[in-house]
């Protein structure tokens, strides 16, 4: 069976001028900064004018643990936004921007798929409006200013061995994980060991996504701890006097980007932290703006609910004062079969028993999201190879968990294929059943917060951490950072730290390899297992097939 590729479908889109999309939301043309004809930034002045307006209802779209079979979380987010508009609701979509690293690696883009896409697809998955480049530049300006301060006399007394601020770039490059800088003699500075993270793991990315306005942005940037003195006194970004220049570089990037779906419905695409190594959510400013402009806001959190949804609830909602009305968990029959032990090559054959065997992964995500007090509905993202018996097995299992599973065909049919889910979401959201509360209180000790996530969300027996890590957490508590939430950096493929352990494992341990203080963003990062904050390219990267065709169009993006 032959299907058009996502990029072919996107290229045929009948886009409207971005000013028309803004008009749908009541955004005057003078408050849109166009980037071409089909994308624009929304002015800070207009956003400030929305203060006092009533908020719409916030819907989170999350998913089971990702598998090579594909789940379609962003596709479902876009489809649900279109579906809500189709049934007469004023809905706005809020998703993250795509990182170049996965685009040229193996994961692909972040614009949805099939008939449920946000466009312009090529620009969104490449340079877009330059936000990631601005974040990269601001981050590395701080890096340069730290080394420059040390070079010109080091009046702050920075211990070169205790510079904790790494550099970033928006590309997968394992060769840069651990490097030595300033080699080559006196004129190049003082050699020291450091490394690169990918831009989406940058604290500057997290800060931009959690800031309410430019003033908040500059304060948070100033709060970044970049190094320590020999007596372990922290050195802040504001001590280096980089926060003002960094804010200047980020002033346009702070403005949310407005684009449209294939069905010409509005979508804010802003910010892009990964959920496996960062907090994995669309920006607070975009989400809050959308809530003032729409009856319903559909947003996503990265990867599976064990990472993205937990961080959405415990970090974003906690810090921004957001209260989700309902959550959608995306699953596929194919992924259930993979969790049930079926090889990718055999997914096309009906296997109801494997579906049943794989469903506990979905069941644990349902229970986890419910534990935050948020009502749940399951979206079965339909593939043409799914059989009625397999779909029925998923529905029966979900019903036994006290939730409803709805078959969705938005990939092939757009909004017409997801009306049932849209109606179910409205029913849940308007029932007032949401009683949202974070997983742990602010005052809980930091290590106990890590244990709470590991035991209650991952169903681990224990957290393994060296004394040095526990002592570091206690030191941060003594320094006034004990109230911060935890951002777990962990493989997205499993509830455990072993990416090959599918299903709903129990009895495992969560080893914490390193902890990092993100004082500006306002959380502690716990790096678990073998997760890397700078990914590498696969053996056969997508970059090998991305090219311009004879008409000058991009091919190979997905």
Q: What do you see in this structure?
A:
With 558 residues, the chain is of the alpha/beta class. It contains 20 helices and 25 strands. Strand 22 and strand 23 form a beta hairpin. Strands 1, 2, 3, 4, 5, 6, 14, 15, 16, 17, 18 and 19 form a twelve-stranded mixed beta sheet that branches. The protein has a four-stranded mixed beta sheet with strand order 20-22-23-21. The chain has a three-stranded antiparallel beta sheet with strand order 7-12-13. Helix 7 packs across helix 8, helix 9 runs antiparallel to helix 11 and helix 15 runs parallel beside helix 16. GO terms for molecular function: ATP binding; formate-tetrahydrofolate ligase activity. Its EC number is 6.3.4.3. Keywords: ATP-binding, Ligase, Nucleotide-binding, One-carbon metabolism. One of its GO terms (biological process) is tetrahydrofolate interconversion. This is Formate--tetrahydrofolate ligase.
> Helix content range of the residues, please?
25-40%
Average predicted local confidence, pLDDT: 95
Q: How big a fraction of the residues is strand?
A: 15-25%
Got a strand count? 25
**Number of helical elements:** 20
Largest sheet: 12 strands, mixed
Distance from N terminus to C terminus (CA atoms, Å) equals 19 Å
Structural class: alpha/beta
Query: What is the C-alpha radius of gyration, as a whole number of Å?
Result: 23 Å
Unreliable spans are none
Overall shape: globular
Keywords: ATP-binding, Ligase, Nucleotide-binding, One-carbon metabolism
GO molecular function, one term: formate-tetrahydrofolate ligase activity
Binding site for ATP: 67-74
Protein name: Formate--tetrahydrofolate ligase
């Amino acid at each position: 069976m032959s299907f058009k590729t996502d990029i072919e479908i996107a290229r045929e889109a009948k886009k409207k001028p971005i000013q028309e999309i803004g008009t749908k939301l009541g955004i005057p043309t003078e408050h849109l900064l166009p980037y071409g004809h089909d994308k624009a930034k929304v002015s800070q002045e207009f956003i400030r004018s929305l203060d006092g307006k009533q908020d719409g209802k916030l819907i989170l779209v999350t998913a089971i643990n990702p598998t090579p079979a594909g789940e379609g979380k962003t596709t479902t987010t876009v489809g649900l936004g279109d579906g809500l508009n189709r049934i007469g609701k004023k809905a706005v979509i809020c998703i993250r921007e795509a990182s170049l690293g996965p685009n040229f690696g193996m994961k692909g883009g972040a614009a949805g798929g099939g008939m449920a896409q946000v466009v312009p697809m090529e620009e969104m998955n490449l340079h877009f409006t330059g936000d990631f480049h601005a974040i990269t530049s601001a981050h590395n300006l701080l890096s340069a200013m730290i080394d420059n301060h040390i070079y010109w006399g080091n009046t702050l007394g920075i211990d070169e061995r205790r510079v904790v601020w790494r550099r970033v770039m928006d590309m997968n490059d394992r060769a840069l994980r651990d490097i030595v800088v300033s080699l080559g003699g006196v004129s190049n500075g003082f050699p020291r060991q450091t490394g690169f993270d990918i831009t989406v793991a940058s604290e500057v990315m997290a800060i931009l996504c959690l800031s309410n306005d430019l003033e908040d942005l500059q304060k948070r940037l100033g709060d970044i701890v970049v190094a320590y003195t020999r007596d372990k006194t922290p050195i802040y970004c504001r001590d280096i006097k980089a926060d003002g220049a960094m804010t200047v570089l980020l002033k346009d990037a702070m403005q949310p980007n407005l684009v449209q779906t294939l069905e010409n419905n509005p979508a804010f695409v802003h910010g892009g932290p990964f959920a496996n190594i960062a907090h994995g959510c669309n920006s607070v400013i975009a989400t809050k703006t959308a809530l003032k402009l729409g009856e319903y806001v559909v947003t996503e959190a990265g990867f599976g609910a064990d990472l993205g949804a937990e961080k959405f609830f415990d970090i974003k909602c906690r810090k921004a004062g957001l209260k989700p009305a309902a959550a959608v968990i995306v699953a596929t029959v194919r992924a259930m079969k993979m969790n049930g032990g079926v090889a990718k090559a055999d997914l096309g054959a009906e296997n109801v028993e494997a579906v049943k065997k794989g469903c506990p992964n979905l069941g644990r995500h349902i229970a986890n999201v419910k534990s935050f007090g948020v009502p749940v509905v399951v979206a079965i993202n339909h593939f043409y190879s799914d059989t009625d018996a397999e779909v029925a097995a998923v529905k029966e299992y979900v019903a036994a968990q006290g939730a409803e599973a709805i078959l969705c065909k938005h990939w092939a049919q757009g909004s017409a294929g997801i009306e049932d889910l849209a109606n179910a979401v409205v029913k849940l959201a308007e029932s007032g059943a949401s009683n949202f509360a974070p997983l742990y209180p602010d005052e809980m000790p930091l290590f106990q917060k890590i244990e709470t996530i590991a035991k209650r969300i991952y169903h681990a027996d224990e957290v393994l951490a060296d004394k040095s890590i526990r002592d570091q957490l206690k030191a941060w508590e003594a320094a006034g950072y004990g109230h911060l939430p935890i951002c777990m950096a962990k493989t997205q493929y499993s509830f455990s730290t072993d990416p090959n352990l599918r299903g709903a494992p129990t009895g495992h341990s969560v080893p914490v390899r390193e902890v990092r203080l993100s004082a500006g963003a306002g959380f502690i990062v716990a790096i678990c297992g073998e997760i890397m904050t700078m990914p590498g390219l696969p053996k056969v990267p997508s970059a090998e097939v991305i090219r311009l065709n004879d008409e000058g169009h991009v091919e190979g993006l997905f």
